[in-house]
Amino acid sequence: MKPVIEVASLRKSFRDREGLSRAVLQDLDLTVDAGEFLCILGPSGCGKSTLLNVLAGLDSVYEGRASVNGGRVGYLFQEPRLLPWLTAEGNLDFALSSCRVPTARREELKSRYLAMTGLSDFRDYYPHQISGGMAQRLALVRALCVEPGVLLMDEPFSGLDEITARRIRSDLLSIWEETRKTIVFVTHNAYEACFLADRILVMSGGVFRHEMRVPVARPRSYEDPAIFQCSRDVIKAFGNEIDREPERTVLPAAASALVDDLDRHTVARMNN
Ligand SMILES: Nc1ncnc2c1ncn2[C@@H]1O[C@H](COP(=O)(O)OP(=O)(O)O)[C@@H](O)[C@H]1O
Ligand SMILES: [Mg+2]
Hints:
Elements: E1 5-15, E2 21-32, E3 37-41, H1 48-56, E4 63-68, E5 73-76, H2 88-98, H3 103-116, H4 132-145, E6 150-154, H5 162-179, E7 182-187, H6 190-196, E8 199-204, E9 207-213, H7 225-243, E10 250-251, H8 253-259, H9 264-271
């Protein structure tokens, strides 16, 4: 079966304040299969959100190829980004109508996902009347309601207290096990990645440095020692890779135009 996400030789640069072109993503290749739960784990600033923005179609200025074939893309951010002047249900209706989901399907979708996240009794509440955890749950409902084929999640639980985050992670796994959406979940939390993922890609300095399958059967329990062991392995691999991380490619603006014509080994030599 054709992969849902296909990324090949993806390169993305930003200009910094001095006008230098800074490579943030460097020749990334990635395929994600239908129904897979992939976690991308990496430190702050390594390019995780930049990658998700490309996959979501929010950023179209890049080199290489990035395609998402699984229909609509749902995107969940670190903060819920709800519209404060609308109720919980109003926020869902807004998303459903923006995505032109047929009116006849809307009630069924809202009821289904509100029930799955324990929010059925909160339809009339405004965002300021619910807790941070409930708001993030509602944002998850909003992302799921529009029936995405692919769900992109950018550190969605890192702003929550640990108890709340654990509950929502468990809810997310139940929802995923039932709906089998393809999920790309970005995090800097190794334990979270091992609890959730089928496969983990460790990223630093704009490249994937290590890949591992999570050898833990489902359904998973948060207290399973196998998850602890897995997170130790990931952190170890991560540490080794960070220790040998090369300097990120930085070129003056004028020179950066030439880079495309040079192969990346030449660029690496220029920086050494
Ligand atoms: N719009 C932008 N303009 C300039 N630099 C940016 C922009 N967006 C991100 N960056 C830089 O790209 C790098 C990667 O950012 P990001 O993808 O947000 O990292 P992460 O999500 O892994 O923390 C950072 O060094 C960041 O400062
Ligand atoms: Mg980020």
